[in-house]
Structure to design on (679 residues):
């Protein structure tokens, strides 16, 4: 065969394989057998082996066979990948629509058009295209940083490598999943101990293989449902935008539909629930999105979820099994949590052997006893829980302990609290270990190679007792003749990788560091609020020390942060005033280097300024005004202090207007505010 003949056949084979991909994945009408399809691929591979110059980035062979990587590198999303808030009944959906209408300041008679589609139980991804070529693909990760799965996603048949009629820059977002039949085939080929629990786990495990050739052997599917960064708008509505993505060559869910009001969306939900078993893939609900993209943009997001979308989940799945024991777990803040140990039972495709009993009051209210047959419930990714007693056993009423099962310290229940807490603090091994596990967790400092088992082992051996010990581990290991690499299950490479991960973790954002400290009531979003408002660790620490005096300006400024209440403020103050915490913070400071937070707007006249809204605005809702201000870099506060830059006063402004006059803060009318920000 001459080179020209080979080039012609190469073009024919690629076109034929792409056509069969379209029949199998897009039209669900395969026209050849799997064996015949594989024969075409083998011919293409042989041709490229004989004529290497024919290999191109968009060849069908480039979807498999990439060299195994040492591990997944991490990629920061250009725009965060958000989660969805959940709705569990029609009332929740109605409240979602009412909230959106109120935020947008719409007349109650206006119908909000919705897009409804099945909520796929798979693994989320984002794929970036530049000038029509696939640049990279990445998992959701923590919403800001994900894993590079480019080589693996290329192996999914029907996933475009190149686009035509697309914007110069386009990020598509969607879900990788495994169809039910493909899942059954995969599990039938595996040993009993290696079988996947459900299609979602199988899809996630397949997509995260270090060797893309393994991923290629698994039949993965995908749907695209949205987008991230784009160089130009692709439509005016969500439905039209996703439809256009389908025309570009992406698989989109054929069950996506427009609904013009709440009753229509509920009919769509009921129909989907009724026909759920007929689908060839797993779903756990229906996603509802506001269709108009200009409204989506105005609505923006809150915390980690958009205001313009919600997941209407299906009812929880249940099963009955025996409660064999009740164990008490001690968390990082000392909370004693009762856990039911169960005879393993299949609940919605997942084997469940543990379930939460929540707290002392819940056990008493349900009168749960060891030996009872109990109803277990799980919904989506929610932790399984004991719903009720189905059949009474012969066990006595459960007596909740008054002492910590780990350290023996007294367990107390503060007034107004539902949980009992161990008073042992850092002398309690359980709390110390849990704090360490939290410190290195994915959403905190994210230290690869230092998981729960390693933390527990290092703590038991005295290698790591405090977070600061993690950063001296390498130096101490060297002094002790490389103890780590000689441990069972370890080696020089494992030890080297861990030390590199620890060094990498020294450079992190202030918000991640605050969250990693495990302060009571301080979650990821609160940590971001604190980092945004104080900017540096030193400014935050000094402010919290000064805020110990509740009459101080520092305390008032802390409470003025929109989203920080008295309980959260006191938890922060208490943390930094404990002597052992001050010692820990001082030790850690010698190791930490803080990097900038996610890029904030600096090109607006109010970037970095503190703004307070008061009264009723006429042209925009106050919630939208706050979200708009934050989107252009302003800090929105809930009360006025000396550090407030602007107070925007609408009709019937109250005490905040008086406070502005008291502190000499500039007051703007609604029109003056919009003139200032150029809106």
């Amino acid at each position: 065969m001459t080179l020209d003949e080979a080039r012609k056949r190469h073009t024919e084979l690629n076109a034929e394989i792409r056509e069969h991909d379209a029949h199998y994945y897009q039209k669900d009408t395969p026209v050849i057998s799997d064996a015949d399809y594989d024969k075409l691929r083998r011919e293409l591979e042989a041709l490229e082996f004989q004529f290497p110059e024919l290999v191109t980035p968009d060849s069908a062979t480039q979807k498999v066979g990439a060299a195994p990587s040492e591990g997944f590198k991490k990629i920061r999303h250009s725009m965060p990948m958000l989660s969805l808030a959940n709705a569990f009944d029609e009332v929740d959906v109605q409240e979602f629509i009412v909230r959106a209408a109120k935020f947008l300041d719409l007349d109650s008679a206006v119908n909000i058009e919705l897009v409804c589609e099945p909520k796929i139980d798979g693994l989320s991804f984002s794929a970036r295209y530049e000038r029509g070529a696939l640049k990279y693909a990445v998992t959701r990760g923590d919403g800001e940083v994900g894993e590079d799965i480019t080589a693996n996603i290329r192996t999914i048949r029907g996933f475009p490598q190149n686009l035509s009629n697309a914007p110069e820059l386009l990020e598509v977002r969607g879900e990788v999943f495994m169809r039910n039949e493909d899942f059954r085939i995969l599990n039938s080929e595996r040993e009993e101990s290696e079988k996947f629990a459900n299609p979602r786990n199988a899809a996630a495990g397949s997509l995260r293989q270090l060797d893309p050739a393994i991923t290629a052997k698994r039949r993965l599917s995908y749907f695209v449902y949205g987008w991230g960064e784009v160089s130009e708008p692709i439509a005016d509505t969500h439905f039209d935008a996703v439809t256009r993505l389908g025309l570009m060559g992406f698989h989109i869910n054929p069950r996506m539909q427009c609904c013009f009001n709440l009753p229509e969306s509920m009919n769509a939900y009921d129909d989907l629930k009724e026909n759920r078993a007929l689908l060839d893939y797993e779903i756990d609900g229906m996603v509802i999105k506001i269709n108009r993209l200009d409204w989506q943009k105005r609505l923006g997001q809150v915390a980690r979820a958009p205001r313009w979308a919600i997941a209407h989940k299906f009812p929880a799945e249940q099963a009955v099994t025996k409660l064999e024991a009740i164990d008490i777990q001690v968390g990082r803040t000392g909370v004693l949590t009762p856990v039911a140990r169960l005879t393993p039972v299949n609940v919605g495709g997942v084997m469940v052997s543990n379930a939460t009993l929540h707290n002392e009051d819940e056990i008493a209210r349900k009168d749960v006893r060891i030996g009872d047959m109990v109803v277990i419930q799980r919904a989506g990714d929610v932790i399984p829980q004991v719903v009720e007693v189905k059949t009474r056993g012969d066990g006595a009423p459960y007596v909740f302990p008054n002492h910590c099962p780990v350290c023996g310290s007294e367990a107390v229940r503060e007034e107004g609290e539902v949980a009992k807490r161990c008073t042992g603090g850092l002398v309690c091994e359980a709390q110390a270990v849990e704090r360490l596990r939290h410190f290195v967790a994915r959403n905190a400092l994210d230290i690869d190679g230092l998981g729960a088992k390693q933390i527990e082992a290092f703590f038991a051996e005295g290698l790591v007792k405090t977070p600061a010990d993690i950063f001296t581990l390498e130096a101490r290991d060297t002094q002790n003749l490389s103890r780590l690499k000689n441990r069972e299950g370890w080696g020089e490479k494992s030890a080297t990788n861990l030390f590199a991960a620890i060094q990498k973790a020294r450079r992190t954002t202030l918000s991640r560091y605050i969250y990693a400290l495990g302060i009571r009531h301080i979650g990821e979003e609160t940590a971001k609020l604190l980092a945004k408002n104080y900017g540096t660790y030193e400014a935050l620490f000094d402010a919290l020390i000064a805020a110990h005096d509740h009459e101080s300006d520092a305390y008032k400024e802390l409470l003025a942060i929109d989203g920080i209440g008295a309980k959260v403020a006191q938890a922060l103050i208490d943390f930094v005033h404990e002597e052992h915490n001050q010692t820990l913070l001082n030790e850690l400071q010698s190791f930490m280097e803080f990097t900038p937070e996610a890029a904030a707007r600096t090109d607006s006249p109010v970037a970095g300024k503190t703004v307070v809204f008061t009264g009723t605005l006429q042209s925009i809702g106050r919630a939208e005004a706050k979200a708009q201000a934050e989107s252009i870099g302003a800090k929105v506060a809930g009360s006025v202090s000396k550090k407030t830059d602007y107070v925007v006063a609408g009709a019937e402004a109250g005490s905040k207007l008086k406070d502005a006059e008291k502190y000499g803060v500039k007051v703007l009318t609604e029109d003056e505010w919009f003139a200032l920000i150029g809106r």
